[in-house]
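cron nightly-structures :: item 1 of 1
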Amino acid sequence: MTLQEFRESLSQPAPPTPENLALTGLWWDAKSDWTRAHESAQQDQGPAGAWVHAYLHRKEGDISNAEYWYGRAGKSIARNALEQEWMEIAKSLLRTA
């Protein structure tokens, strides 16, 4: 799936790749459902889930919690705009999906 196809899927009622919990978390975030996004990211125990989890806590404004999750993801703390980080994460996850 391309980034464009992923973005187009936001018009649908359900995520296109429900088995990819980290990507599903980003999908719910783009649909403005932080709670479902967080639940999905939490279910992915790997680095991808931790990265989405970090992004979500950064977006929420909980920087100390975000820092913890960036560490779990093996990533530096993001300093770019949230939209840019969302795109970076989505591109990375779609390459491995």
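cron nightly-structures :: done
The helical segments are 3-8, 21-30, 34-43, 47-60, 63-73, 82-96.
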